[in-house]
Amino acid sequence: MQGLHRIGAACALLGALALPLAPALAQGNAIKLVVGAPPGGTTDTVARSIAQHMSQDLARPVLVENKPGAGGNIAADYVAKSPPDGNTLLVTFTSFSINASLYRNLPFDPIGDFTPVSMLANVPSVLVARKDFPARSMPEFVSLVKASPGKYTMALGAIGSSLHMAGERMKMMAGLNILNVPYKGTAPAITDLLGGQVDMMFASSLNALPHIKSGALKALGVTSPKALPQFPGVPPIGDTIQGFESNAWFALFGPARLPPETLAMLNAAARKAVDTPEFRHLLEREAASAVSSSPAELGAFVRKDIERYAEIVKFTGATVD
């Protein structure tokens, strides 16, 4: 989603200094959105866009602070241990759910140590194969792989990522035996796929779309429940593997025990930010969707997501520590 990177180098500060400060957020000089990824990545850019619009709505500076490392756990731990005053928040992504079972010794409780604020975005991915891969559709793909267990290879840009888990979920649900080939990043994985050294991979819409359009890669299915206009003629994988769906997500959390009035104010500001035409258009260009939620809806989603990924992680046998 590099198209998101054009959002800007830093979030805007106050849009209307003359407005009175909201009582529930009157302490401190700025609200920090802590991001567990380096500057310039998708999560960072989503956070900066949200920060810009929230600062205008709250009449407060909203700044982004990057604390990358450990799949987002360093940033999450920092926010979990911050005062519950609404001044330190976490913008996180799908690994928040995956890490609950992938890491055996997390320094925080992903449920008990956080207050859900709002969902921000959903990002589907696409199953792509080398251009000369024999299957031309998902039904042909499933039949081909089942007929030759262990013959075909799947590139992994990162162990434990949402794209890795999408592949494992597909294999688990369809009973497929595909050999994983780990890489140190998406770029080398795609390079080898383009060169025919591996057979397939799950890739983000941004990384896959140019190669699909040029004919260098073959798109077999999208992970969203419905077809995407950015991928004409490419059906949902769930049309063939019933119940399959896999999306990366981005969401906003605070420390546990945020006061109700503070939570209500932050949720309202986040939802307004997500609903702006600029944010929605930015995501739609990359086949992503701007999605807001109530705190209760996000909390229920994360609990279910943690359970879902625990099943997949158990299937893979993967651990990090």
Structure description:
By secondary structure, this protein is of the alpha/beta class. The chain is 37% helix and 20% strand. It has helices spanning 42-58, 73-80, 95-102, 138-147, 162-174, 186-194, 205-214, 260-274, 277-284, 295-316, and strands at 31-35, 62-66, 88-93, 114-130, 153-156, 179-182, 200-204, 217-222, 247-255, 289-290. Strands 1, 2, 3, 4, 5, 6, 7, 8, 9 and 10 form a ten-stranded mixed beta sheet that branches. β1, α1 and β2 form a beta-alpha-beta unit. The chain is globular, with a radius of gyration of 20 Å. The model is unreliable at 1-23 (pLDDT under 50).
Q: Mind sketching the topology for me?
A:
Blueprint: E1 31-35, H1 42-58, E2 62-66, H2 73-80, E3 88-93, H3 95-102, E4 114-130, H4 138-147, E5 153-156, H5 162-174, E6 179-182, H6 186-194, E7 200-204, H7 205-214, E8 217-222, E9 247-255, H8 260-274, H9 277-284, E10 289-290, H10 295-316
What are the main properties of this structure?
alpha/beta; 10-stranded mixed sheet; 10 strands; 10 helices; 321 residues; 20% strand
Beta content: 15-25%
Terminal CA distance reads: 30 Å
Structural shape:
globular
Mean pLDDT: 89
Q: Write down how many β-strands occur, each being a DSSP E stretch of 2 or more residues.
A: 10
Major beta sheet summary: 10 strands, mixed
Helical fraction: 25-40%
Query: How many alpha or pi helices?
Result: 10
Low-confidence stretches: 1-23
Rg result: 20 Å
SSE series: EHEHEHEHEHEHEHEEHHEH
- Indicate the structural class: alpha/beta
